[in-house]
Amino acid sequence: QVRLVESGGGLVQTGGSLRLSCAASGRAISTYTMNWFRQAPGKERELVAGISSGGSTYYADSVKGRFTISRDNAKNTLYLQMNSLKPEDTAVYYCNAANDWGQGTQVTVSS
């Protein structure tokens, strides 16, 4: 089991940037595909971005070109750099590794 703790969320204006971090403990994340999901009020949780153990990345169409997922295996940490934020990016963002989830961090983008 991997314990995941997200941080870096907050309130930002449209067009602003945030960098989310997900600190992992309990097991090394180097062999895991790591993901960022988000859930907006009244909506289902959706996959935002993923990164394989080999470094291949995936992005939802809605965030392509604006978000960048990365990992630092030495620090056992996952990141999500979010640029050009839009109000529709407002959600709770969750870090995921296999069946393990963090508690989430709130991102709010004001118009």
General description of the model:
This protein has 111 residues and is mainly beta. It is 0% helix and 53% strand. The strands form two sheets. Strands 2, 4, 5, 6, 9, 10 and 11 form a seven-stranded mixed beta sheet that branches. Strands 1-3-8-7 form a four-stranded antiparallel beta sheet, with no helix packed on it. 32% of the residues are buried. The mean pLDDT is 97.
Low-confidence stretches: none
What order do the helices and strands follow?
Answer: EEEEEEEEEEE
Largest beta-sheet characterization? 7 strands, mixed
Shape: globular
Any key phrases for this structure?
111 residues, mainly beta, seven-stranded mixed beta sheet, four-stranded antiparallel beta sheet, globular
Please outline what is shown here.
The chain is an all-beta fold and 111 residues long. It has strands at 3-7, 10-13, 18-25, 34-39, 46-51, 57-59, 67-72, 77-82, 91-97, 100-101, 105-110.
